[in-house]
Specification:
The chain crosses the membrane at residues 12-33. With 390 residues, this protein is α+β, with helices and mostly antiparallel strands. Helices cover 20% and strands 13% of the residues. The N and C termini lie far apart (91 Å).
Amino acid sequence: MAASITKKNFSCQYYILYMYVTILLIVFLPVSLQGQEAEEASCKSSEDESCGCAATSRDKAAYTKPVEGEGGAEAPEFDKDTTRTVKSSATTRTNQMVFVRGGDFTMGTDDVRFPQDGEGPARPVRVDSFYADVYEVSNAEFDIFVKETGFVTEAEKFGDSFVLENLISEEVKSEITQAVAGAPWWLPVKGADWRHPEGVDSDIINRMDHPVVHVSWNDAVAYCTWAKKRLPTEAEWEYASRGGLENRLYPWGNNEMPKKEHRMNIWQGKFPEENTEEDGYYSTAPVTSYKPNKFGLYNTAGNVWEWVSDWLSVRHTTELQVNPKGPAKSATNDKVKKGGSYMCHKDYCYRYRNAARSQNTPDSSASNLGFRCFADKLPQGVGEIKVVIR
């Protein structure tokens, strides 16, 4: 009888332990998997709503054959003096900086459009004061750097870079046998670099005041170091882009076209077949284009993506962060870029918002990827632009 009772007690205890473990698995396993899925999502681009810019990471890009007769328009003639290629002098300096007084702001957003990008949640951040380049680094400024240092960009070393198909001549296109899988409008073009944005038969003679492109994160760091500046943190960049406006979509507010006026260089028309150029430009615009935000910065929305110093993370605390610099490393080996580009459009790649972000590996380059520099103090010889906050 005693043995029977002991056996029953053991069975009961075993059953209780079994149920306890089962409950733990039911409660905590989905949470663990959800976190894993969120981390893995950072590796993926949203192909149904993306220009595929994150897919152009060097050594990560998957390729397919170019689609004959689809996805591209006739290449624009950049060698002509048109509204999209304003001639400029290489001696016109655009390396001025503006002092941005630090403060508190809300970084990110709770109105998340691309969860896989890690653009949410909205969170309190405090940054110290800094100096910011008024303009994106132009071809003219980068040319001064290269002539003084003999610097060779990574695109030049690798021998190729990614270019939007529409911008490439038929002669160059005829020699290309690969396109980026899921984003076939992106083609790896031999000889594409900062001097030859669309390949070997293109140049920047009439685009010295346009932003330099085909510059990797590593290249951008080298330039900023030479200029006695640095890349901004993502928090500094977003604080500067918002221009003191709290919880606004764009650097000037929530209206994409105030008084029906274009404020940025993005895509108009059906991507990638047609760009109507309603904002005045097919691809890049001069760095001095449009109106600045209230801090005096030009083109933090659209035109070209801008590198920041942070490694990518898609998880953020909602606690107050002071001068955050991002994680010590990235599981995907990606650096963050901000601001969107001339390829963005609200219908498929709504990433020209202040809170939006994307990523590429540090050695990646493309025809819509540039940068601007920040600094803790004004470098000697660099002009400061005084901005009156209204």
